[in-house]
Amino acid sequence: MAMMLRPILGAVIGAAIGFAMYRFVGCKTGACPLTANPWVAMMLWGLIGALAAAGK
Q: Domain range for residue 36?
């Protein structure tokens, strides 16, 4: 069970970073696909966080 905890925690932290990127860096015009939509930013950064946490 502990093996599953690291990627899940990494995904949650990554999603929080993605939301922070959207909120504080974001794109005002909506032309930036990665930071214009909070859901896309959270999903992308969550995936990156899960992959980073799963690696050894």
A: 2-54
Q: Measure the CA–CA gap between 11 and 18, rounded to whole angstroms.
A: 10
- How many domains does the chain contain in total? 1
pTM, full prediction: 0.85
Amino acid (1-letter code) at residue 49: G
- Residues sharing a CB contact under 8 Å with residue 46, sequence separation 6 or more, in sequence order: 11, 12, 14, 15, 18
User: Where is pLDDT greater, at 39 or 35?
Assistant: 39
* pLDDT reported for residue 1: 61
Q: Produce one character per residue of 15-37: b if its CB has 16 or more CB atoms within 10 Å, e if not.
A: bebbbebbeeebeeeeeeeebeb
